[in-house]
Amino acid sequence: MKVALDFVSLENVHECARLIPEFWLLPQSHRSKQDILEVKKLDVYAASAAIDEARNLMSKIAVARNCS
Hints:
Number of helices: 2
Distance between the termini: 49 Å
Order of helices and strands: HH
Strand content: under 5%
Oligomer: single chain
Radius of gyration: 19 Å
Protein name: Transcription factor jumonji domain-containing protein
InterPro entries: LSDs-like
Structural class: mainly alpha
Number of strands: 0
Family: Belongs to the JARID1 histone demethylase family.
Subcellular location: Nucleus
């Protein structure tokens, strides 16, 4: 079992994104300055996964149309 403090649930992504500008205002030496949650990377990954899913669905539709 693992407990992760940097876990971001889907319901809280908007709150994490809202906090990003506040992180930017922290001094360089502050331990929370780095983007530990990497919300932007989560957004890119989610978009990429959605695009892949849409492509797979479109391929299945095209195959189904050709078979009928």
